[in-house]
Amino acid sequence: MNTFISIVRRDLQLAMRQGMDSVMVVAFFILAVMLFPFGVGPEANILARIAAGVIWVAALLSSMLSLERLFQIDYEDGSLELLALQPCALEITVMAKITAHWLTTGLPLLIATPLLAVFMSLPSDGFWALLFTLAIGTPSLSLIGAIGAALILGSRRGGVLLSLLVLPLYIPVLIFGVSAVDGAISGLPIKAHLLIMAGLLVAALPLCPWAGAGAIKQALET
Amino acid sequence: MEQLISYFQMGGHGSFIWTSYGMVFVVLAVLWLQSRRFVRNSQTELDGLAVDRPHCQTSKKNET
Amino acid sequence: MYLYKFGKMIFHKYANPTRFLKLASTIQPWAAAATIGFLLAGLYFALLSSPGDYQQGETVRIMYIHVPAAWMAMFCYTAMAAAAAVGLIWKHPVAELAARATAPIGACFTFLALFTGSLWGKPMWGTWWVWDARLTSVLILFFLYLGYMALSNAFDDPARGSKASSILALVGFVNVPIIKFSVDWWNTLHQPASVIKMDGPAIHASMLIPLILMAFAFKAFYIWVMLMRIRGEINEGKIRALRLRQVHGGPPSRTTILEKTTEGAR
Q: Which B positions 10-29 lie with beta carbon below 8 A of chain C?
């Protein structure tokens, strides 16, 4: 547990020192959403109709932005090997890095969401649903993405490859997230959607660090 | 002749049906050809390497 | 643990590429003959001897290639994930190569299922593409294949590539039912009254025969081409091992080459 906290703290400190990372992610998030009024026209009812989907897709893409560097930097300067040599299981280290990733991307996205909901004139019924689905959805995104980030260590053209690997796996989270918000807007019960999203998160919580640690082990072996 | 033409027309949907079958044929043929070329190229390369060092007969001759 | 040992016992026999190649070269001609035989018979029944469907007319003939291709798309992914698992758990070199060899074949069948489905959809539903649950999940499956192939070729060291992509194949396999399930639900939410039903009314024997024959033809084709590709992969492994020897110098003995072969083949 101590290792876990110290790794999270270390990653957060690194993110702070390099600064900008979270700011860039949020800026990308806002810009990506901002393109849609230009693309489809500024009519409020059209924007309201697509708001949930657009915000979700933009959140998904921006949480993928910093994924490439999740393990890459530590892999290149060799500190990943030191982390792997620690007495605790590598899964804990991976989990800690995922947590730090979520704190530096998922959380800022969540904070920026109300602003975008206003921009996209999201109906107020859907607002809390959007916030809540993002709150339980973005950790799942970080978890699933970590597998991809671990798999591409040491590969050529990592960034493009990462999106090819990770985006298909993101689809279930996106589907349930958006349909929960749509359901809330049209006054349907959304408990089932939220339960499934929570289920995805609970399933990803042990599986993704495990698979990610496996991928890192084989990356360090050779 | 009439019969043949009407057979190929397939009740007006001939183009869909024949394109489907054609595509299946083309894709599978290309996959097969590519696989065969892959095997042949690797085999010749391997044989060439084995000839350089005749005492290591790891390759098998002409198995296709 | 017992399961592990049991598996090791079973798979051990063909872990040696040379022994595997011997087996493969006996199977290969049979697979080739079966492919051609089933294909010709299937084509005869599919295009000549079967009647058009009373509802779908002649377009039903597309089904005889579309449905087997879709079956193969699913089958190849399962086979690939199973081979990847065997390769990862039992460190079985040939299994890893089998997973690598399966991916392009599976991708081709998935593409064919999508393409023929689209051509079938146009006269039947009046559109090339609908975001129907099944179509969408097959499309995602296609991208999973592409991701697998891209990852397995993205490393300078092929051993890394096949290990990383094996992990991806397993992760994707866990995710396939989830995708299927989520897409099903997504579809029902958006279009509650789905008019589209892929499987028509109870299937008649005259349609079943060409369907089964084509399915056998595709499966035999898969075995045939997969064995070819595994042979190619094994050759590549040997070439790499020989090159490595040449670079490091010194006359290689037979045993070291075989060792290197199994190592490089991973």
A: 10-11, 13-14, 16-17, 19-21, 23-24, 27-28
Domain count, chain B: 1
Between CA A69 and CA A73 the distance in angstroms is 6
| 3-state SS assignment for residue C53 | strand
Helix (H, G, I), strand (E, B) or coil at C33: helix
Is the predicted pLDDT of residue A130 greater than 60, yes or no?
yes
User: Residue B3's pLDDT band (boundaries 50, 70, 90)?
Assistant: confident
* Alpha-carbon span C134 to C181, nearest angstrom: 10
Question: Which residues are CB-contacts of A24 (< 8 A; sequence separation ≥ 6)?
Answer: A65, A66
> A133: burial class by Cβ within 10 Å (0-12, 13-18, 19+)?
buried
DSSP B54: T
Answer yes or no: is B35 within a domain: yes
List the domain range (segments joined by +) for residue B7. 2-52
Task: Report yes or no: C11 and C86 within 8 Å, Cβ to Cβ.
Answer: yes
Residues of C in contact with A186 (CB under 8 A): none
User: What ipTM is given for this predicted complex?
Assistant: 0.88
CA distance A118 to A185: 15
Give the gap in angstroms from C-alpha B32 to the nearest C-alpha of chain C. 6
* Cβ burial C5-14 (10 Å sphere, 16+ → b, else e): eeeeeebeeb
Please count the structural domains in chain C: 1
User: DSSP alpha helices (H): ranges in chain A?
Assistant: 2-18, 21-40, 44-65, 69-76, 79-85, 90-101, 107-119, 124-151, 158-185, 191-221
